[in-house]
Amino acid sequence: MDERNQITEGVIWKQLLIFFFPIMIGTFFQQIYNTADSIVVGRFVGKEALAAVGGSVNQIVNLVVEVFVGLTSGASVIAAQFYGAKDRKNLNKTLHTSYAFGITTGCIVGVLGFFLTDTVLTLMKTPQELMADSRIYLHIYFCGMVFNIIYNMGASILRAVGDSKRPLYVLMVTCGLNIVLDIVLVVVCRLGVMGVALATVSCQGISSALVTVLLMKENPLFQLKLREIRFYGASLKSVLRIGIPAALEATMYTIANLIIQVFVNELGTDTVAAWGTFAKIDAVYWMVVNAFAISITTFVGQNYGAGKVKRMRKSVGICLGMAYAGAFLVSGVLYALAAPLYRLFTTDAKIVQIGVDMMHFLLPSYFLYVAIGILSGALRGAGRVLVPMLLTCGGVCFFRIVWMFGVFPGYPGINTIMLSYPVSWGITAVLFIIYYIRRFPKVKRIQE
């Protein structure tokens, strides 16, 4: 490894892009990984299977994943700060504590999720014709929950220390394998939804093993040793201080989406299928913005640990400009290609038309989220997590919940549901800009 840390010393825009592209491409492969399930069942099983995988199941899986991605962000921020400060001892304690935490919580959540599946699906008013397939998918998914959490934990730590390439290689391998298994288990073996669930869990197991092996390789500042995986009190406290607010934020986001899914479920199977498919398609947009958000969290975290506040602030401005450019480009392409993209998932003309209308309604407002994502990532990297969490939970999540129960009954329909998104983004973006200006670390002395 080059002894010169490019994140704290290199050209900012160039290093942001070098770090960003592997994350974005990796997220793209992650999306293909997830989308392959929907394409295969939509094409070879039927629209009920497509609605099952893309409806309530998708929201429940997102809830679990986003909560733990939030928790792993605590590990990644602390790891980035210790890496920037070249603190080998505390970096290794953070690494081993994070793994112990991931294994423990993965097992607990897997068991709870398995036994609560029916209850949650019923509370979400999942259409009866979708219940059997939804139950099968979730039961298998929760059995492999620990693999998902270990992979996300390990990959987030690798990115935190500036290694965004090797997590990409892991995703490329497992994505290709997942597609092959989907086709074999669904098309050849005719296992339906069970087949895509088994393919997903199998590949998650392989990805968790690969990322663990990567962390076990010797590095000047860190190395994972299986016999040293345990909880270190101070490290756990630091990880949870950052991770819990991020997890709560992710939880509120997904709870809001779960509630929205309940209202969507009342609009019929065609709308459910179109809505779930939209979530697969517009993930291309979110992978760009979120890749920039992950990049700026690592940049701010390492420069914060190195004491380079001036460089922190400069990197945020550059990252915002890049993220807005990417957001306008991607949302424009998705808008133009809405119909052919939907036809990849289904040949049902009604579902395609509903989905195209959804995309044309929402995509023009997607740029509003950019400030939220980038500024939230920057503030998290600097250790400021509580207020951003409250802003997001209130401005986005709580607002949407109130909207659904207050506005939807008077104006029922999918357009009312979709309108809650741009309104909540706009309000929250303004709040984030004000807080960033007031509270992001300021230059008090020459840092570089």
Radius of gyration, taken over Cα atoms and rounded to an integer in Å = 21 Å
The low-confidence parts are none
Largest sheet: none
Order of helices and strands: HHHHHHHHHHHHHHHHHH
Measured distance between first and last alpha carbons:
23 Å
Helix/strand-derived category reads mainly alpha
> Mean pLDDT, rounded to whole units?
86
* Proportion of residues in β-strands: under 5%
Q: In total, how many beta strands? A: 0
- Roughly what percent helix? over 70%
DSSP summary: helix tally: 18
Question: Judging from the principal axes of the Cα atoms, what is the shape?
Answer: globular
Describe the structure.
By secondary structure, this protein is mainly alpha-helical. 53% of the residues are buried. Helices cover 82% and strands 0% of the residues. The chain has helices at 6-9, 12-44, 47-54, 56-84, 88-123, 128-143, 145-160, 165-188, 193-216, 233-265, 269-281, 283-305, 309-336, 338-343, 349-362, 370-381, 386-406, 414-439.
